[in-house]
């Protein structure tokens, strides 16, 4: 059993106070009087009901203690929490060079990380999270864990590399691992050509805007025959 608000157990400290007040209740005073003749009948009636009064006083004390206990249990919110059927979730963060683009401010990568962190926070308690990064290599960063704080620490530590991406290889790698996630969350700019394997339950978050797709596809240098001089050849292609 777990308690959502255990701090309210402090209310139980009021039980000793109630008991002390009960013990310190007003006691009868002893008085000297000239005659008790008129009190004899009253005394007989008092004896008749004294047992009942004592019983009622004790019942009131028990009811007060019971009320404090019930109030405390209501405040601490006890419950039995079961994570039967908890989901297995895989996060893939694209760390390729193209994620450094600034068509989305501040960068595609920063926007992807922010979305990933928000999604981690939104997942239910007991969700098992595994984490991968993907650029030219696939990096298995975290095996399944329910520690959201650890997951967010690793996500925050990531940075984009100056290499090409290979998301498809990462997905194939996960498929071969046989981890069988309930869902894969992919955070990418979509800069890959081949189709995503249909056998995997993937939800893609894309961080890129439609823009002119121009890039340097090759570069080379050679000597000109003149000392200290070189020729550089650059190929630029427009994929728009």
Major sheet details: 5 strands, mixed
**CATH level 3 topology of the largest domain:** Rossmann fold
Taking the alpha carbons of the first and last residues, their distance comes to 60 Å
**What fraction of residues sit in β-strands?**
15-25%
What gross morphology would you assign?
A: rod-shaped
- Helix content bin: 25-40%
List how many beta strands DSSP finds. 9
Throw out a few tags for this protein.
Rossmann fold; two-stranded antiparallel sheet; 2 domains; five-stranded mixed β-sheet; 240 residues; alpha/beta
Describe the structure.
The chain is of the alpha/beta class. The chain has two domains: 2-79, no CATH class; 88-214, Rossmann fold (3-Layer(aba) Sandwich). The chain is built from five helices and nine strands. Helix 1 packs antiparallel against helix 2 (40-76) and helix 3 (108-122) runs antiparallel to helix 4 (148-157). It starts with a strand and ends with a strand.
Quick gist of this model?
With 240 residues, the protein is of the alpha/beta class. It has helices at residues 14-23, 40-76, 108-122, 148-157, 167-177; strands at 2-3, 78-79, 88-94, 128-134, 138-145, 183-188, 202-206, 214-223, 230-238.
SSE blueprint:
Blueprint: E1 2-3, H1 14-23, H2 40-76, E2 78-79, E3 88-94, H3 108-122, E4 128-134, E5 138-145, H4 148-157, H5 167-177, E6 183-188, E7 202-206, E8 214-223, E9 230-238
Parallel strand pairs: 3-4, 3-6, 6-7
Antiparallel strand pairs: 1-2, 4-5, 8-9
Helix pairs in contact: 1-2, 3-4
């Amino acid at each position: 059993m777990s308690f959502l608000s255990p701090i309210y157990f402090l209310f139980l400290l009021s039980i000793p106070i109630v008991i002390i007040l009960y013990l310190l209740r007003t006691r009868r005073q002893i008085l000297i009087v000239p005659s008790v003749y008129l009190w004899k009948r009253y005394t007989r009636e008092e004896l008749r009901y004294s047992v009942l009064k004592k019983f009622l006083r004790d019942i009131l004390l028990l009811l007060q203690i019971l009320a404090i206990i019930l109030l405390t249990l209501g405040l601490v919110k006890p419950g039995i929490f079961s994570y039967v059927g908890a989901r297995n979730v895989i996060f893939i963060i694209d760390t390729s060079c193209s994620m450094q683009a600034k068509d989305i401010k501040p960068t595609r990568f920063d926007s992807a990380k922010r979305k990933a962190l928000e999604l981690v926070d939104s997942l239910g308690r007991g969700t098992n999270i595994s984490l991968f990064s993907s650029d030219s290599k696939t990096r298995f960063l975290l095996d399944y864990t329910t520690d959201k704080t650890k997951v967010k620490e690793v996500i925050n530590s990531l940075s984009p590399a100056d290499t090409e991406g290979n998301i498809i290889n990462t997905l194939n790698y996960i498929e071969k691992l046989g981890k069988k996630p309930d869902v894969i969350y992919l955070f990418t700019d979509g800069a890959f050509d081949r189709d995503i394997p249909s056998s995997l339950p993937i939800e893609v978050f894309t961080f890129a805007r439609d823009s002119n797709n121009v890039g340097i596809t090759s570069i080379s240098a050679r000597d000109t025959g003149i000392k200290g001089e070189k020729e550089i050849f650059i190929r630029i292609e427009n994929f728009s």
